Amino acid sequence: MPDAEFESFSDIELVEKAKTNPDFFTPLVRRWQERLFFYVRRISYFNTEDAEDLVQETFLKVYRYLNDYDQSFAFSTWLYRIARNTVFDAIRARKARPHDVYLEETEAVSLFLSQTDISKKIVQKDSFAMIVSLIQALPYKYKEVMVLRYLEEKTYEEIMDIIQKPKGTVAALLNRARKQIVSEARRLRVY
User: Fold this and answer.
1) What is the DSSP string of 34-71?
2) Which domains can be identified in the chain, with CATH numbers?
């Protein structure tokens, strides 16, 4: 079946069909692979090759546990939770703490590149770089929720399901992270 024919299927339909026919799992991988890769890079310090391995390991786990998928959750939420746990397992296996986060160009950078006033571009570039460095400097528990909320654009409910914390905890983590970023930006006189 050509890839275009799979596009009409929802994630849940592909999951159900993949339970009996592995050919239906490939479109799920293609649909989510790139987003999952960037998520893994954002929440970890792993290089490109290691992140690709973790994404592949995540999809192996997803396939292995397809029958356990609970359709009351969005497939993406279940997928991100498995990816998160896979990253944590890898971090534990290396006996290392996460430190650097990979942040690729976002909409802010695209906007920056499309503007014509070079002085504005320089100011925006410096501000964006500063924000990225401030996010990277956050303690891991804050960095993770900031990545999920603002870079992965997950809802509070999705974040709750991924990190398995109540809504109040998610809100508190986001609030504390924002306060730390604003405080540090003011200290550095960039805000």
Assistant:
1) HHHHHHHHHHS---HHHHHHHHHHHHHHHHHTGGG--T
2) 9-94 (1.10.1740.10), 107-187 (1.10.10.10)
